[in-house]
Design a protein that fits this description.
By secondary structure, the chain is of the alpha+beta class. The chain has three domains: 113 residues, no CATH class; 86 residues, no CATH class; 103 residues, Roll (Nuclear Transport Factor 2, Chain: A). Helix content is 24%, strand content 29%. It contains eight helices and 17 strands. The strands form six sheets. A six-stranded antiparallel beta barrel has the order 5-6-7-10-9-8. Strands 15-16-17 form a three-stranded antiparallel β-sheet, with helices on one face. Helix 7 runs antiparallel to helix 8. The chain is globular. Bound molecules: zinc ion.
Length: 356
Amino acid sequence: MRNEFPISVKQKLAERVAYRCSFPDCDQHTIGPGVENDMATMNLEEAAHIYAASPGGPRYNPELSDDACRSIENGIWLCRKHARVIDVGHKVYAAQTLKTWKKSAELRARYVLLGGDTDQAALPSVLLRLGHRLVCWVRWLAIEHLQWTFEVVAFVEGSIQDLQMYCSSFSQMPSYNRFVIIESQGDGRCLEGIHLKVEQGQRVLLECFVGPKAPRSIHQDMADFALDSDFDLETYQGDLHVVTGTEAAIQAITLSLSLQYGDLKEFPDEGSEFRWILAHYQHDPLLNKMIKMEVARLLTVGANLANRPGLDFVNRVIDVQVLGVRQLPICSPAIVHLELEFGDGEQWKGIIQIPV
Ligand SMILES: [Zn+2]
């Protein structure tokens, strides 16, 4: 059974964004007069579900009750075109991102209602990471096919000079450093181009020309030799033990995060930043988001290891919670609660342990 929204919920969703589409930079009016008679109206809108109304639908969340699925919290008001875009492209548009857009659209509607100019509306920002050590808060301004435009609001790692340097040296950069990660999405893309524009009013606009999402491999087909907690081969009655499917996938994620920069002397540019982030952000509220972006990097560009594939069997990281971080550095391994979506849409959550 589909959990359709009650009419009252649809109406409130629409009113809260002044009947305009919530997709970044669309702002399409969704209601107007019809031509049949003086009473007729024409609607080109959709109250779209953030988590799908029925199993198998886009972003379906089995833990959401029917009531929660039909509630206003689970809706976003869109024009018909963009309602289709987010559902056909559901592997691209994460629930958390849609929630950010909804909040943006509501803030914008309120700002305009009170007499403000839309361009000046205070929109909520998302965390974005470029390359290895550039992380900033941005506002998502527009999406036009493979061109994403953001306004840079503040820096977490790096500075405006570092961003300028990143953009100007982009074409000489190794491919593993050309990527953009969006924290709310738990996902990223390889970058084909990037352009920084500083407007007269000092607004810093970042245009990212992204590649299409690379195809995902099927985690169910994976198989590898089992490793013990020290990453030594595990034997069972003298034979090497083999892990397959989800177990092999989780082992690959653990291994990928454990392999730190500098661990491989012959490949100093390769590995994960997990340990560095843990050391630098262990008392920072951004810790979980920073780790989430690092996992998203590994599924976007991989660990760049010649003999190891990236996490191309993961579609998206849904959530990361580092547990027991207060005991650091005594606490080893680091205990991480991870929630993700595999390439085939299956969701997994559980605990992984990363040696630090
Ligand atoms: Zn739209």
